[in-house]
Structures are given as structure tokens and as C-alpha cells.
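Action item from last meeting closed. Structure (319 res):
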């Protein structure tokens, strides 16, 4: 197949390019480098199975090649207000990527008779009142909060994807992606793993926001990519949660990073800015992924962190 991937220079997008090329497909990648980095694709330069176009997908997308599958992964994704690449600081670009970018990529899939996969998110559940989150849960999202630019864009994107499925019979899929980590994450995007691992490797104090009792469930990138790959090859049109079901408090997560890196510095607690509506609990129910895709994560958190450390060390100039 010829696979078209938006957000190809991003964390997940670049790993998807690698996976599809490894499986013998050709890949056309697109990115405008607002949050993605050319470094993530440098190893594919000169590879005949890979073509790249720099373009903002919120504008009409022209791809000269015929494409068999479209994967829409372009969007800022970090909720950190201090990060320049986070969606707090790119609110309009985020809404355009989720709304106009989804419209353009669906149009491209329709014109090519291609299958389509939308990268949606656990953020569509907002600060969930149901736990763990099943795909049938409709979410608890503040439409005007600062997280809304991401959450509502992705909710719109899901609705538009279903409209193209129902109206134009585009062969669509929706992946609801939970917290994911691994090599090629943006070290400075302010999210929990890059922040804490960065701090630990530099021998600094670890910053935990609030009391650290809020939870997340972290999936190693190779597991996540395998789930996406299987979903694209499946015939499932309704949303599927893809993530690791092992829930951990952020304080335990910070302590795990401390012990793996043997960092002796303390953990400091910083104020939790509730105006940003930091979700208090997050854990995917992955029953549908298990049943429909025969998929579940294989990599334990400690092993995944170990696998991520060499990338962080090289980026930090520690090797
Ligand atoms: N967090 C933290 N310290 C940090 C960065 C993040 O305690 O240095 C917390 C953050 O408040 C949230 C959790 O870690 O509760 C996960 O945040 P992240 O930014 O990774 O993504 P989210 O899951 O909120 O989209």
C-alpha cells in the first residue's frame, strides 16, 4: 500500500512511517514542523520507500501519488502551558489541524477511495466521571477551557469522520490514543515523562504538579504503533481505545523514574492549576482492542523507561 501520514515528523507520526516501511509499504509523509522535527525523519532521507512534503494540512492537500490509506496524526498535543509547542500556545493551529485538517484528509481519502484512520485521544473524555474509560463514555469536557482547543477539535474530528463514513462511505477508523512515551518525544514539550526523565537524568529535582495523586496510564510507543497498525488493517469503524491499562499515580511515576535513574534529588510539589482542568484519573478500558484487534501492550513501564533513556541521554549530550 501507499500510506499517507500527516504529522509525519512528530513523535507518533515518525514511528508510524518506520513501521509501515518495515512492513514493505511505501509512505508519503507530510508535516509543517510547527511541533514536529526534521530530526525524527533524518534516517529516512534517501529511502526510496519514503517521500516527504512540507505543508500545513489545514490548507487544501495535494498529493501527486495515488494513496491507499490516510492516517491523520498532525496536531500539537502537549497540554503544558509553559511549552511553546503545546496547544495552549498554539490554540488556533490546534483547532485548525483537528477541524480543517481532518476535513482535508477525509476529502483526500474519499478522492482516492483510501481507508482512513483518525488519531483521536483520551482527551475527548475530558476529566472523566467514569473510570476506567470505555469507548461508550461520552466525556466531561469544558467547551471554553484552555484544554478545549485540543479536546473539542478532536471531538469535532471524530464527528466529521463518522459523517464521512455514514454519508460518503469512506472506510474510516478512529483510534483514541492514551498517554504514550518513548524515543523521539519532544524533550521540551513539558509533558510528564519528558519533564521528569529530563530532570532525573540531569540530577535535578522532579516537579510533580498538585499532590501527585492524579493518575495516568502510560503506553510504550512500539505497543501503541502496533495497535494503530492493527486497527488500520481491521474493518472496525467505531472508536477503539489504544493505550496501556496499567494505571499509576504521577507521584509513583516520578518515584519510578527516580529509582531507575538513581537520581537522588528530591521531588518537589508545584501548584496544580485547576483552571487547566488537569484530568484526575485516566485509564483506558481496552476490552475492544483486545477483542477486535487481538492487541494488548506487552512492554512494562520500567522496561519502556529503560528503552527511552538512551534517546534522552543522547539529546541531552550525556553520552
Ligand atoms: N505532570 C507533573 N509534572 C510534570 C509534568 C506533568 O506532575 O513535570 C503531571 C500533569 O499535571 C498531569 C500528568 O503529569 O497530571 C500528565 O501530564 P502530561 O502533560 O504528560 O499529559 P496529559 O495526560 O495531562 O495530557
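Sequence:
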Amino acid at each position: 500500500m501507499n500510506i499517507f501520514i500527516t504529522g509525519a515528523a512528530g513523535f507518533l507520526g515518525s514511528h508510524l512511517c518506520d513501521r509501515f516501511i518495515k512492513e514493505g509499504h511505501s509512505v508519503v509523509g507530510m508535516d509543517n514542523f510547527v511541533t514536529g522535527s526534521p530530526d525524527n525523519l533524518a534516517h529516512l532521507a534517501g529511502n526510496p520507500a519514503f517521500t516527504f512534503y512540507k505543508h500545513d494540512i489545514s490548507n487544501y492537500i495535494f498529493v501527486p501519488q495515488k494513496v491507499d490509506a490516510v492516517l491523520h496524526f498532525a496536531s500539537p498535543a502537549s497540554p503544558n502551558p509553559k511549552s511553546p509547542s503545546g496547544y495552549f500556545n498554539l490554540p488556533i493551529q490546534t483547532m485548525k489541524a483537528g477541524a480543517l485538517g481532518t476535513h482535508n484528509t477525509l476529502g483526500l481519502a474519499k478522492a482516492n477511495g483510501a481507508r482512513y484512520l483518525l488519531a483521536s485521544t483520551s482527551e475527548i473524555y475530558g476529566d472523566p466521571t467514569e473510570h476506567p474509560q470505555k469507548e461508550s463514555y461520552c466525556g466531561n469536557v469544558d467547551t471554553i477551557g484552555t484544554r478545549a482547543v485540543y479536546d473539542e477539535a478532536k471531538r469535532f474530528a471524530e464527528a466529521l469522520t463518522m459523517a464521512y463514513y455514514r454519508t460518503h462511505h469512506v472506510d474510516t477508523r478512529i483510534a483514541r490514543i492514551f498517554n504514550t512515551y518513548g524515543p523521539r518525544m519532544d524533550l521540551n514539550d513539558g509533558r510528564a515523562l519528558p519533564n521528569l526523565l529530563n530532570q532525573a537524568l540531569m540530577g535535578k529535582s522532579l516537579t510533580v504538579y498538585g499532590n501527585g495523586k492524579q493518575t495516568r496510564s502510560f503506553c510504550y510507543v512500539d505497543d501503541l504503533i502496533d495497535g494503530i497498525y492493527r486497527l488500520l488493517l481491521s474493518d472496525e469503524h467505531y472508536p477503539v481505545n489504544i493505550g496501556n491499562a496499567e494505571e499509576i499515580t504521577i507521584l509513583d511515576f516520578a518515584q519510578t523514574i527516580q529509582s531507575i535513574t538513581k537520581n537522588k534529588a528530591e521531588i518537589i510539589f508545584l501548584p496544580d492549576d485547576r483552571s487547566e482542568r488537569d484530568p484526575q484519573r485516566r485509564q483506558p478500558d481496552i476490552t475492544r482492542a483486545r477483542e477486535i484487534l487481538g492487541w494488548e501492550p506487552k512492554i512494562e513501564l520500567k522496561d519502556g523507561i529503560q528503552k527511552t533513556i538512551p534517546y534522552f541521554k543522547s539529546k541531552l549530550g550525556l553520552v
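Note appended to the action item: The radius of gyration is 19 Å.
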